[in-house]
Predict the structure.
Amino acid sequence: MNGTNNVSKIRSVIAASSVGTMIEWYDFYIFGMLSTTISLQFFPKDNPTAALLSTLAIFAMGFIVRPFGALVFGRLGDIIGRKYTFLLTLILMGGSTFLIGCIPSYEKIDIWAPILVLLLRILQGLALGGEYGGAATYVAEHAPVGKRGYYTSWIQTTATLGLFLALGIILLVKSNMSDAAFNAEWGGWRYPFWISIVLVGVSIYIRLRMKESPLFSKLKAEGKTSANPLKESFRHKANFKMVLLALFGAVMGQGVVWYTGQFYAQNFLETKCKLDFEQSRTIMLWAIAFATPFFIFWGWLSDKIGRKWIMMAGMALAIFTYRPIFNTFLKDSNGHYQEAFSGKGITRSNEKAIGTKIEAISNSEDSLMTRNTLVTLSNGMYYTEVVTDTIHKINQGTAVGLRAQKNVHVNTSTYWQFVGLVFILILYVTMVYGPIAAFLVEMFPTKIRYTSMSLPYHIGNGVFGGLVPFIGLLLTTTYPADPLVGLWYPIGVAALCLVIGVLYLRNKIDRNIND
Amino acid sequence: MRKFNAFKRYFGLLFLFIAPFVIYELISGALKHIDTKKTELINSPVNWIVIIAIFTPIAIGLVIFGWYAFRGEYDHLPQKSKELDV
């Protein structure tokens, strides 16, 4: 076969695998991004906080079941083949996503609404657990020697591109209708779920035309496929110790760096910095757009200098710079800090009262007065200041209470500074994630590769990474004095992984994975 | 190389102890912070139980990893699939 044909063939393999995987990530992420709306639709409205937490718990469930999907579909992939297994996961994911968009609200079907959402979310998690390992293995087994890192890095861009697509489609739908129309029972929030079925249909058509992986086909023709991949992966000590090394020396740290850079950062900008909806999302979109090519760069570089030190450098940089970066987000978006402590001579250039509300405090004769003021600062930043005072009935006095801010709109220079900082966070993601598919593929033999690499990958990403926002919230609630306390979880996990990776991993590239 | 391998083995002991320590911290944290009155929903018993249930098997995995490291199982990493005895 000539060189042009080979290049064309590998390009179509990458395209078919990447498009499907990107759509699976899209399906997986729209749930998290629409969690506030979903919580209002599928849970009782009398306790919105409980509803949101329940939605986040269901969102987290999708991550937690990923390792089980890795076991089920990894086994299938090592027995019947890569192509049909990841076709199955695509159908399962697309179907579940579409059906989430079709579930009637809590008001119509009562408790069945959250139960159906939970079941479909579990199916999504299982499907994703089977998809990634298949796609990475499929591409790696087609890639020529010396270019495995480069070719598999295209698969590595899909998670970020899926996030980008999800953000983009949600923004597009939301910008074309009012908030009421978007949040209505059968409103715009359902469109991203329905769009999925079209995307998945296209991807299935492309994937059906692909052939099985050449290494797996050869193994099957020789009758050397594994009869029991689970047993061979985890009950043979020699292979099991490599599974442990992959998890604790690479994927665990990669998972927390990934989710801190792309999820925790967005959540932090929204809930701690109180940036408005449009700014918090467009900052992520710009940073993702600028950083995504670096997945390819690090994958390519890993073919030249090895995978290990690129991943370890990404982890080390994350450990030492997370707190300063997130602290900058906090300070530069805080109007009160800008006025009083920044030392830049920033003053209030305009104040406009936008409403006052007085509410009785239950079991008390006192009342709470909430004043909303639109504040504009001399540096161009504006936000809604919310001052809550207690009005005492007995002495007719007022105790000045809490001063908070919401709907923060930072000025242009701060906006681009934030884009730059999120870009740095995602650059770390590209360093740890770009080379990891090739790294994992090279660790395990063909006949149990799908199973062996999928489990550590999904424990690292689904459990360690997927729980970053949830454990961050748990830490922040438990230790409220430090707004950055949630970062200690990813920093601690990445530090442990860095020590193990530096000490026990080797940097040698395995040229021959055909064994 | 022998010195580095000895160093890697001693570090194995560290991982053997880190894992039970993490589980101890999780359980004591749960006992201290679980909020049965549901004033802080994030600290509900279900959340803590799920987190402990997920991380306990992973911590056992870290103990096994530490034990293998201490026994010198990672002094030499396989160069070929044949060395993985499957």
Q: What stands out?
A: Residues 170 and 192 of chain A are 7 Å apart (CA to CA). Chain A has two domains: 3-333+412-504, 337-409. Chain A touches chain B at residues 49-50, 53, 57, 64, 226, 232, 236, 238-239, 241-242, 244-245, 247-248, 444-448, 459, 463, 467, 470-471, 473-474, 477-478, 496, 499-500, 503-504, 506, 508, 512, 515 (CB under 8 Å).
